[in-house]
Design a protein that fits this description.
The protein is α/β, with parallel strands linked by helices. The chain is 39% helix and 14% strand. The protein has one domain: TIM Barrel, CATH 3.20.20.150. Strand 4, helix 4 and strand 5 form a beta-alpha-beta unit.
Length: 273
């Protein structure tokens, strides 16, 4: 089983060689960077250069970059734009695309394979106009990313635009041949991991793995919620061309969210059959 880690675990800290050394020291050579500006300031060429030099010096390839969710340094609390490719207002949609493109541009210094993208905002209601807006945005971003060696992945998130069924309908309707980053926690909140996985499995090339108790999007360690991990790992192992089990975890403090504890969780997942 190929395990990987998102730097979302450290997203309230500035991404540094110290953090990357800790991740590598825990045995992860496959990583996704979360593009939040307080963490990776993709507007700052010096910060991007420093992070790129670490990856080059350690001969580590970057698996994925998560597209920004806000344009500011504080999760939108200081008035930053909530980034969405599905805004029906053209000005907001263009501002969002510009922010995502700024993040994609780091590929010129720090190549990455996938850009993980949300379609719409959390809990957003279904509206065909929003899907048309997303199509316009994603067509443009797909070309922009491809020119820099990256491929866009859509993620199933807790809203009515990005249910597994709607994602497949969107891909079929648009003929954009998009792939999927499958999120276990979001699937669990929206009807269960197995049915969501069965709907999306032909297009999954990466994952976000975390747990919850079907009440909130906790991004907890596996086994700290009530996802059936036996069933989930059977689903994962049943797909040809195995994708990484990439943990996207919230930091609940050293006792709950430490890398040594994550190593124990990985051992338990690896032992499931």
């Amino acid at each position: 089983m190929d395990f990987a880690l998102s730097t979302y675990l450290f997203s309230d800290e500035r991404l540094s060689s110290h953090i990357l050394d800790k991740i590598l020291g825990a045995g992860f050579r496959n990583m996704e960077i979360f593009a939040a500006r307080q963490h990776l300031d993709y507007h700052d060429p010096n910060h991007v250069r420093d992070v790129a030099e670490w990856f080059r010096d350690h001969e580590v390839a970057l698996h994925a970059l998560h597209a920004p969710l806000f344009s500011d340094h504080d999760w939108g609390r200081t008035g930053g734009l909530a980034v969405s490719v599905a805004y029906t207002e053209r000005r907001l949609r263009i501002d969002s695309m510009d922010e995502i493109k700024r993040a994609i541009e780091i590929a010129e210094r720090l190549p990455f394979r996938y850009l993980v993208l949300h379609m719409g905002l959390p809990e957003e209601e279904y509206d065909l106009r929003k899907l048309d807006a997303a199509l316009t945005s994603i067509e443009h971003l797909k070309i922009f990313a491809k020119e820099r060696g990256a491929q866009i992945l859509l993620e199933n998130i807790p809203n009515e635009l990005s249910t597994p069924e709607r994602l497949i309908q969107f891909i079929q309707y648009t003929r954009l041949d998009l792939k999927i980053c499958f999120d276990t926690g979001h699937a669990h909140l929206a009807g269960g991991v197995r049915p969501a996985f069965e709907t999306l499995k032909e297009r999954i090339v990466s994952t976000h793995v975390h747990d919850n108790r079907r009440e909130m999007d906790d991004h907890a360690m596996p086994f700290d919620g009530d996802i059936d991990w036996n069933e989930t790992m059977r689903c994962f192992r049943g797909v040809d061309g195995q994708f990484p089990v990439l943990f996207e975890l919230r930091n609940y403090g050293p006792e709950v969210s430490s890398l040594p504890r994550l190593r124990e969780v990985m051992g338990k997942l690896d032992a499931l059959r």
